[in-house]
Automatic annotation (TrEMBL):
UniProt-annotated stretches for the region Disordered: 1-34, 119-220
Any one Gene Ontology molecular-function term assigned to this protein's record: RNA binding
Cellular component terms (Gene Ontology): spliceosomal complex
PROSITE patterns membership: RRM
A Pfam family assignment: RRM_1
Name of the protein in question: RRM domain-containing protein
RRM domain mapped to chain residues: 38-116
Annotated keywords: mRNA processing, mRNA splicing, RNA-binding, Spliceosome
Lineage: Eukaryota, Viridiplantae, Streptophyta, Embryophyta, Tracheophyta
GO BP terms: mRNA processing; RNA splicing
Organism in which the protein naturally occurs: Kalanchoe fedtschenkoi
Biased segments, Basic and acidic residues type: 119-138, 169-183
Basic residues composition-biased segments: 15-28, 192-204
Domain of life: Eukaryota
Amino acid sequence: MRGRSYTPSPPRGGYGRRRRSPSPRRKYAARDDRDYPTSLLVRNLRHDCRPEDLRRPFGQFGPLKDIYLPRDYYTGQPRGFGFIQYVDPADAAEAKYQMDGQILLGRELTVVFAEENRKKPADMRARDRVRGHSYDRRRSPRSPRYSRSSPRLHARDRSRSRGYSPSPRRREYSRRASRERSYSRSPAHNGSRSRSRSPIRGRARSPNATYSREPSRDSR
DNA sequence: GTTGAGCGTT
């Protein structure tokens, strides 16, 4: 009997049973009424805040599925907000209600439901262009040289905390693996020729002994 | 089957 009495505490006037009102936009699009959002957007996070810091306070309400703190792609600096996904939407609702306005590390958190739509790299790229100020892709007035910090460098840091919940056990595993290669998840694929998308110059990766099967040697 | 450049950063 786990009669855990959830107190979803619906936001102002409840979630609304799909009102016929001409809402300009459904708050939680792509979700049915019975399917409440499980992701929360936590705002006003301290820049020092790490996923682990959030896990404890937010984990009180239920199992967390994921925690992710977006960072600036170029600078790698935390953006001050994060996403917390719950397994159970009821927990998410509860957490939102309880944590909204709470103080974490001296900052008052703002917790709201997150949209389900994740942003893709392609979107960010487009956005960057728009934000960049009439970006003339031909040649920008200012060379966006962000040679200072590269996401890749942060990738190293990411190896430790990874940003999202790593299984403790897995970490052990990863620790060993992170010795040599395994750096394949950087924005810069540095494939061989396309090095345009990434702000940083991907270091020329060794060909890594491609398994080029000799065309004429495989006889059977 | 997933996504880690996630919307809301001062």
